[in-house]
Amino acid sequence: MTDVLEIEGLRTEFRIAGQWRAAVDGVSLSVARGETLALVGESGCGKSMTALSVMGLVPHPAGRIGGGHIRLDGTDLVGLPDAALDTLRGDRMAMIFQEPMTSLNPVMTIGAQVAEALILHRGLSRAEAAKRALAVLEEVKIPSAAARFHDYPHQFSGGMRQRVMIAIALACEPALLLADEPTTALDVTIQAQVLGLLADLKGKYGMAMLFITHNLGVVAQIADRVAVMYAGQIVEQGSVADIFARPAHPYTAALFAAIPRMDLPGQELAAIGGRVPPLDAMPAGCRFAPRCHKAGPGCEAAQDLRPLRAGHAVRCHLAT
């Protein structure tokens, strides 16, 4: 399969007390056409910042991409002028954000917001864009789409607003879709519907999808491969089947241990002690060592992401 997205040695930095600190530190990822890569980890690990780096939305002047490459269909996005990125965003690459109510424009109708991308990137007339926008809203299963075309975001439920966000993202049939925890604010029934919809549309359009989540149940349902992120680095990467069956990094294992088991009544809920280190206080060696029950000699040295077995890599000298 052809890689749509290639991230190589990405370093995204923020200025803190006069020094540049890495929120994303040496991340390398690839997503092929028709593939879903899940990026998982706790809040503050750098998942969303990785996606914003791909979209060219790192806030300036406090933040910058300090190194590495981001290639979309072979075109390096790092260093592209804003005008060039504007032509790609919403066209060749699109993003679904976590909270649709703050992402949708409250004073524009739903239909107008979907049609806007078609007018900007496809040069359609307003009438043509409205016709195509209605078709996309029907495709994402908005009930009575024609009747609701001129409604405003506040008139939709959370699940329906998320479907509108998906419609906006897919209007121009992008090659790459970035989904930043798109089901977090939804109940489990609506979450399942949205995940099923994304899987169907990915198959129809042959998109590459980078799916950001902290929910390992969602990963099992939608992803082909998974990359586990901690403190700005990828600590484990492999197929969903392999990592779910044999998690090799202590952090990955701790994430699985924190999932409540329905078949164990009266169980004690597990938690990972401590918190993700702040950008200006990263441990010198393994970044997970201060929270790791396996930490010992050798963990004080910087860890490299190394192959463990075919298609499976881990950043831990203890992993076997």
Description:
The protein is an alpha/beta fold. The chain has a domain at 3-102 and 174-223: P-loop containing nucleotide triphosphate hydrolases (Rossmann fold), CATH 3.40.50. It contains eleven helices and twelve strands. It has helices spanning 47-55, 82-88, 100-103, 110-122, 126-139, 145-148, 158-170, 188-205, 216-222, 240-245, 250-257; strands at residues 3-16, 19-32, 36-40, 63-72, 75-76, 93-96, 176-180, 208-213, 225-230, 233-239, 306-309, 312-314. The strands form two sheets. The chain has an eight-stranded mixed beta sheet with strand order 6-7-8-3-9-10-12-11, sandwiched between helices. Helix 4 (110-122) crosses helix 5 (126-139), helix 4 (110-122) packs parallel to helix 7 (158-170) and helix 7 (158-170) runs parallel beside helix 8 (188-205).
Keywords:
320 residues, alpha/beta, Rossmann fold, 8-stranded mixed sheet, 11 helices
Architecture blueprint of SSEs:
Layout (H helix, E strand, L loop, with lengths): L2 E14 L2 E14 L3 E5 L6 H9 L7 E10 L2 E2 L5 H7 L4 E4 L3 H4 L6 H13 L3 H14 L5 H4 L9 H13 L5 E5 L7 H18 L2 E6 L2 H7 L2 E6 L2 E7 H6 L4 H8 L48 E4 L2 E3 L6
Parallel strand pairs: 3-8, 3-9, 6-7, 7-8
Antiparallel strand pairs: 1-2, 1-4, 4-5, 9-10, 10-12, 11-12
Helix pairs in contact: 4-5, 4-7, 5-7, 7-8
